[in-house]
Amino acid sequence: NNITDKGASILANSSTLEELSLSYTKITDEGVKAIAQNSNIAYVFLEGDGLTSKGVMSFAKLSAVAMLDL
């Protein structure tokens, strides 16, 4: 999957986005930070991406996240 941090930033701006599956993409911690800015996202699937604990911690402050699959 060729989605990058730039694509993740664009998707993150959707006010109706509740579920996001971006497993096995080229998203890094920067893309995850952008996604974590969307407080409507409840389900996030990012398995197989190049994330570090720094990127994962971006989701710690989101109360709406019901499932985070890494």
Summary tags:
single chain; 70 residues; alpha/beta; 3 helices; 27% helix; 13% strand
Shape: globular
The structure class reads alpha/beta
Give the N-terminus to C-terminus distance in angstroms: 16 Å
The total of helices stands at 3
Major sheet size, sense and barrel closure: 3 strands, parallel
- Counting copies of identical and different chains, the oligomeric state is single chain
| Beta content | 5-15%
Uncertain regions: pLDDT < 50 for 5+ in a row?
none
Global Rg: 10 Å
Q: Helix share of residues? A: 25-40%
Question: What spatial order of strands do you see in the largest sheet?
Answer: 1-2-3
DSSP summary, beta strand count:
3
Secondary-structure element series: HEHEHE
Overall residue-averaged pLDDT value: 86
Description:
The chain is an alpha/beta fold and 70 residues long. The chain is 27% helix and 13% strand. The protein has a three-stranded parallel sheet with strand order 1-2-3, with no helix packed on it. The protein is globular and about 25 Å long. The mean pLDDT is 86.
SSE topology sketch:
Blueprint: H1 5-12, E1 19-21, H2 29-35, E2 43-45, H3 53-56, E3 67-69
Parallel strand pairs: 1-2, 2-3
Helix pairs in contact: 1-2
Summarize the entry for a quick read:
The chain is 27% helix and 13% strand. By secondary structure, the protein is of the alpha/beta class. It has a three-stranded parallel β-sheet with strand order 1-2-3, with no helix packed on it.
